[in-house]
Write a structure and sequence with these properties.
Layout lengths: L4 E10 L3 E4 H5 L6 H8 L3 E4 L7 H16 L8 E5 L10 H9 L5 E5 L5 H14 L5 E9 L17 E11 L4 E9 L7 E2 L11 H5 L6 E2 L1 H22 L9 E4 L4 H11 L10 H4 L6 H8 L9 E8 L3 E8 L3
This protein binds oxa(dethia)-CoA.
The site of oxa(dethia)-CoA has 19 residues, from helix 2, helix 7 and strand 12.
Length: 329
């Protein structure tokens, strides 16, 4: 069987128009622009205001742009995966809604839930399916409408998140490029450190759960910060070591955008200069599964064939990991 890899051939995104600034948040909760910027790196984030639009709307727009960028028609797609923790419905999968709306009528479709590591886990899963020869072309989408689970009276969480979607087309290649390696971890012991308490089968929606605000995201920020800093730095340096990559060999770090201090700690451990690190948390906040493809989109004109790129993420679960990919389009 011929050597196969999976490579990204198109990138797309969707960001809602509404810009929620730190100044506006000052009118909701006891916070201030200076605290938010110095503790997180965030200046503003996008919010999908239209109550009739949700994650599938953003994911569909991002997917259409990625298909156009790749020059691939929707009918050629074999698989659509949407990484999200804010699906339109618990079922059917958001990916099924996207499959229909983009016209990927030959594709099967499902969602993947790994919170902020969702896009990374989806990319490695779908990439492995392409490498196996089972499928040839896929859409991998990270999309979250975090504003649907944000408590705008809780200053410890409402300043952090934003809405958005990023998508890539992943295709089979016989070249020595694309996804080269990945390392991924889960620690299910810490399921209460970052979670949405109600709405699942353990605590279905009741008057009580709504009254107690259990449908909103809850996070023990300080503990997650410690775990995320260790996890992202460790796994990023581990994948470099495993693939004999020195800092000079790495062209870009594409980190999950949860906190600028976590991103800088990861880059420091990898020995990378700041100019090799993609950062857009200032503009979009933490868009959960969308952060990594949104970075790839913003930097796509700066990516060159042969660039060694490390994607790295940490999120609820707890989940974390890194992907090493060699760019070529
Ligand atoms: O994406 C998935 C993974 N998630 C993450 O990686 C997020 C990890 N955590 C973080 O990024 C940080 O922990 C936060 C940004 C959430 C919080 O930053 P911190 O430096 O860890 O602050 P803290 O929670 O230790 O709070 C420090 C102080 C507290 O006041 P006292 O107890 O020192 O008087 C908080 O009450 O800051 C206070 N505080 C705020 N002050 C102004 C907490 N939130 C705010 C706020 N504005 N929005």
């Amino acid at each position: 069987m011929a050597f196969k890899r999976a490579k990204i051939t198109g990138v797309g995104r969707y960001l809602p128009d509404y810009v929620l600034t730190n100044e506006e948040l000052e009118s909701y909760v006891d916070t201030n622009d200076e605290w938010i910027r110095t503790r997180t790196g965030i200046s503003e984030r996008r919010i999908l205001k239209d109550p009739d639009k949700a994650t599938s709307f953003m994911a569909t727009n991002a997917a259409n742009e990625a298909l156009k960028d790749a020059g691939v028609s929707a009918e050629e797609i074999d698989l659509v995966v949407v990484a999200t923790v804010t699906p339109d419905y618990l079922f059917p999968a958001t990916a099924a809604l996207v499959q229909k709306r983009v016209g990927a009528k030959n594709a099967f479709a499902y969602d993947l839930s790994a919170a902020c590591s969702g896009f990374l886990f989806a990319l490695s899963t779908v990439g492995s399916m392409i490498e196996s020869g089972r499928i040839k072309k896929a859409l991998v989408i990270g999309a979250d409408k975090m504003s649907s689970i944000m408590d705008f009276t809780d200053r410890s969480t409402c300043i952090l998140f934003g809405d958005g979607a990023g998508a890539v087309v992943l295709e089979e290649t016989n070249e020595d490029t694309g996804i080269v390696d990945f390392i991924q971890y889960t620690d299910g012991d810490e399921d209460n450190m970052l979670y949405q308490p109600a709405g699942g089968s353990l605590h279905p929606a009741t008057e009580e759960t709504v009254k107690n605000k259990q449908h909103y995201i809850k996070q023990d920020g300080r503990s997650v910060f410690k775990k995320a800093t260790e996890g992202m730095a460790d796994v990023s340096s581990e994948i470099m070591e495993k693939n004999n990559l020195k800092a000079d060999d790495v062209a870009w770090l594409v980190p999950h955008q949860a906190n600028l201090r976590i991103i800088h700690a990861t880059a420091r451990r990898m020995g990378l200069d700041k100019n090799k690190v993609m950062v857009n948390i200032n503009k979009y906040g933490n868009t959960t599964a969308a952060t990594i493809p949104l970075c790839l989109y913003d930097w796509k004109e700066s990516l060159n064939d042969g660039d060694n790129i490390i994607l790295s993420a940490f999120g609820g679960g707890l989940t974390w990991g890194a992907i090493y990919l060699k760019w070529s389009k």
